[in-house]
Design brief:
With 367 residues, the chain is an alpha+beta fold. It has two domains: 7-124, Winged helix-like DNA-binding domain superfamily/Winged helix DNA-binding domain (Arc Repressor Mutant, subunit A), CATH 1.10.10.10; 127-357, no CATH class. It contains eleven helices and eight strands. The protein has helices at residues 29-40, 48-54, 63-77, 127-157, 162-196, 202-231, 241-257, 265-285, 291-301, 310-316, 323-363, and strands at residues 4-6, 9-12, 17-20, 23-24, 45-47, 87-90, 94-97, 102-103. A five-stranded antiparallel β-sheet has the order 4-3-2-1-8, with no helix packed on it. A three-stranded antiparallel β-sheet has the order 5-7-6. Helix 7 runs antiparallel to helix 8 (265-285). It is elongated. The relative contact order is 0.12.
Length: 367
């Protein structure tokens, strides 16, 4: 097979090189062989048996190895299994390369050879369809973290009896709404960052950071204005843009890890949680506050409020909600938020890419 071009890519199997806009795309040799096979058979089905014979050359591997290979190729090509532009899944049978391929030199001259029907280009795909999955995953993960956080603080700090039940409900609703907004903003930022820079984690991390800073800043502004309007008191040191930026960057890293081929969802959640824990602890050490610290600050401004975070402090070994309790709860909050966002991103991505692909991995491509 000679060198060929498709979209922004040039594949030269003899030179063992794949480039995008003239820059080398780093993929393993076996994955390059799989791509070369797909492109050589463009428009035609390539079965599992052919991949095993011509790419793995008889080495016994599981179906998951082929699934991971195709996921990695799609990631490097910027493809989407749900709306394929390059690699189409044929459930229970194999894969087909569907982009138009041109044989020719680096300048792109030449005659199209056996072109397959071209899928829509990224420019023709509505922008919202490229942003919604990550935004939805962020909202889902953030919402789960908000429910868990609200239950923790409510059960630990609310008074007993009917008043405690109503306080718990209000606190869970408030934390869930706040976390939903934070997760959606971070997820949208992650998606936008990936559009800006698909290679490496920096697009997702920067996008998540900006999304977190935006929602953190707006939440603080609205909360301060609301408290000032309703009570005349507005604690000025509540969580804000800086805290949102740090936590959003950690969640963005977790969301990026969730899209790595071969990385299990729980592993991505664990790494994302570790990044979030580091961000939460760093925020506290630098004098910032997350939910627990902001809630404590607010309750100090209203000493007659029935809710008290002193029991949370006692769980950690302090007389009240002191600096150790603030650090521990911020660490847990950061870990929970980033882990939930990473887990939701992994599950949403696998569902979007995997209904057909998952059937391939579970049932066997060739049956």
């Amino acid at each position: 097979m000679t060198a060929c071009r498709f979209d922004r890519f040039r594949l030269d199997p003899q030179d063992r090189r794949l480039t995008r806009d003239g820059e080398t795309v780093e993929i393993s040799g076996r994955y390059l062989d799989a791509l070369a096979l797909l492109v050589a058979e463009r428009g035609r089905l390539v079965t599992k048996d052919r991949f095993m014979d011509e790419v793995w050359k008889g080495v016994p591997v599981t179906d998951e190895a082929l699934t991971q290979c195709v996921r990695a190729l799609r990631r490097e090509l910027g493809d989407d299994a749900a709306r394929p532009r390059f690699i189409e899944t044929v459930p229970k049978h194999g894969y087909r390369f569907v982009a138009e391929v041109t044989d020719g030199d680096e300048t792109g001259t030449g005659v199209p050879s056996n072109p397959a029907p071209a899928a829509s280009s990224p420019a023709s795909e509505p922008l919202w369809r490229r942003l919604v999955p990550d935004a939805g995953a962020g909202m889902t993960g953030g919402g789960l973290a908000g429910v868990a956080g609200g239950l923790f603080y409510g059960l630990a700090a609310a008074p007993q009896g009917m008043g405690g039940a109503s306080t718990l409900i209000v606190l869970v609703c408030a934390t869930t709404l706040l976390a939903l907004a934070a997760g959606a903003s971070v997820g949208l930022g992650v998606a936008a960052g990936r559009l800006w820079r698909a290679d490496g984690p920096w697009g997702a991390v920067l996008g998540g950071a900006l999304g977190g800073a935006l929602v953190g800043g707006l939440t603080r502004l609205i909360a301060l204005d609301a408290f000032r309007l309703l009570t005349g008191v507005a604690p000025a040191d509540m969580t804000g843009a800086g805290e949102g930026l740090a936590l959003g960057a950690a969640a963005g890293l977790g969301a990026w890890l969730a899209t790595r081929p071969g990385l299990k969802a729980r592993t991505a959640a664990a790494f994302g949680g570790a990044a979030g824990a580091a961000a939460g602890l760093g925020i506290t050490l630098l004098g910032g506050r997350l939910l627990g610290g902001s809630l404590d600050l607010l309750l100090r401004a209203f000493p007659e409020a029935p809710l008290s975070l002193a029991p949370v402090g006692r769980l950690i070994g302090e007389d009240g909600f002191g600096p150790v309790a603030a650090a521990v709860t911020a660490t847990l909050e950061g870990a929970l938020f980033a882990a939930c966002v990473a887990l939701a991103t992994a599950l949403v991505r696998r569902q979007a890419a995997g209904s057909p692909e998952g059937a391939v991995g579970a049932s066997g491509v060739a049956g």
